[in-house]
Amino acid sequence: MADLSRINLIMAETDGAYHDAAVRLGLSDSALRILYAICAEGGSCELCLLPRTTGLSKQTIHSALRKLEKDAFLCVSGIGGKKKSLSLTPEGRELTERTIAPLMALENAIFDSWPEQDMAMFLELNQRYLTQLKEKIKEL
């Protein structure tokens, strides 16, 4: 029997750590996730990728994007539909260099400190859990 309470606590505390990072970096949780996703894609991406890569609802994404665009941190281009593209502005690149880049660097430092087999196991087990969870949720 899985220790579900410990698993849930670790997942919740991980989410809490990212919330703490957002607060320390002066970002909302949704802005952190969106900017992180855009940075992971090299500074631009299609809007349709964000729900999957951030875990945020479409409504939350659109609200956060409006604010990020209003604050001149990113540019939304394209006309209608899901084919909109998001790109960091020069101000957005400056912001992400101060915020997202250090966060990614500390994550990489943590993972780089792990033996290669631990990293492989971590990825394998997380992927297996996600795949099985998605399958089982379809049965609800």
Note down, in words, how this protein is organized.
This protein is mainly alpha-helical. The protein is 69% helix and 8% strand. It has helices at residues 4-25, 29-40, 50-54, 58-70, 90-98, 100-112, 116-137; strands spanning 44-46, 74-77, 85-88. It has a 3-stranded antiparallel beta sheet with strand order 1-3-2. Strand 2 and strand 3 (85-88) form a beta hairpin. It is globular and about 50 Å long.
Topology:
Blueprint: H1 4-25, H2 29-40, E1 44-46, H3 50-54, H4 58-70, E2 74-77, E3 85-88, H5 90-98, H6 100-112, H7 116-137
Antiparallel strand pairs: 1-3, 2-3
Summarize the structure.
The chain is mostly helical and 140 residues long. Helices cover 69% and strands 8% of the residues.
Q: Helical region count?
A: 7
The strand order across the widest sheet is 1-3-2
What share of residues is helical?
A: 55-70%
Structural class: mainly alpha
Overall pLDDT: 94
**How much of the residues is beta strand, in percent?**
5-15%
**Strand tally:** 3
- Biggest beta sheet attributes: 3 strands, antiparallel
The SSE string, one letter per element, is HHEHHEEHHH
Low-pLDDT residue spans: none
Task: Characterize the overall form.
Answer: globular
Indicate the radius of gyration in whole angstroms. 17 Å
Distance between the termini: 20 Å
Quickly list its features:
69% helix; three-stranded antiparallel β-sheet; single chain; mainly alpha; globular; 140 residues
